[in-house]
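$ run holo --ligand "tryptophan" --emit tokens
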Amino acid sequence: MFEGKTILTGVKPTGTPHLGNYLGAIKPAVALGNNALEQGGKHYMFIADYHAINAEKNPEVLNAKTKEIACIYLASGLNPEKSFFFRQSDIPEIPEITTILYAYTPKGFMNKAHAYKAAVDKNREAGKPDDDGINMGLYTYPTLMAADILAYDSDIVPVGKDQVQHVEIARDIAGAINAHYNKELLKLPTYYFDDNVAVVPGVDGRKMSKSYGNVIPLFEDDKSIKKAIFSIKTDSRPMEEPKNPDEILVYEIYKSIATPEQLKEMGDGLRQGKLGYGHIKNMLLDAVIAEIKEAREKYNYYMANFNEVEDMLQKGAEKARPAAQATLKRLKDAVFSR
Ligand code: TRP
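-- output --
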């Protein structure tokens, strides 16, 4: 399906990912990267640190979050030999391309972009002026994202639902530029949204999300993971009472991580009244730990030896840059008739 395609994944360095991010975003992105070369394509994977400064102004925090996200992807199996792995801010062509794209970005697109709209809605709810605390970085966020996408001639951008609109904006801007200069200066990207990717419920049954405080942590010690898993909501029915597994949250979470055999074992045990909540929580705990054990060790290694990671990121930027340079040149040649 991705044969010969250039795939681009961007991640913002925002806070520590949890199990839901790992299963729903990190693992699938790593798999795409590891398959891209075999399918005759390319995979660009970058950390969107320019996007992050709109919200995070503390340099140390920003740096720590960037480090953490780089180590998490590497620990989860991202291979810098197979993916172009780099920081957005190490590609100076990105802000240059952004400037050209601005001239083709209708202001109305930005008014409608969901990140900006969400911020306005929040202000209204709080009885504040619409644009209170909103900077131009947030407002023009989709144009910078369009530059990321268009710079590397991306065909496909795998995204979560909330980012679909941004890819469409990138496509519209590229289309407008190509039409104006009557030339295929920019590749038109499409988004890819995978319906099968796990949406993992949190310990309270709502979608696992840091803002709900219902997460199962990722690369922390067994004790913290156990604590989160044992806080998963259950009821007071006795073990012997047969239960419908689909109504049990532990089982729902287990679905996103267990093998079919493991899942059947838990399902049968619940239906037959042979497994209690303590048992199934331990089964989930074992599965989570088995899943992340190796990655956690690697994560700790990379965090302690970040110079190695920095080196990979610099090499990645060097490899990624020529595509962005070529795009910028095509644009400047056309725009200025040089
Ligand atoms: N906006 C994306 C997010 O919040 C991050 C991002 C920035 C991105 N530039 C991108 C994603 C380009 C895909 C392609 O998750």
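-- notes --
Strands lie at 6-11, 42-47, 84-87, 156-158, 190-192.
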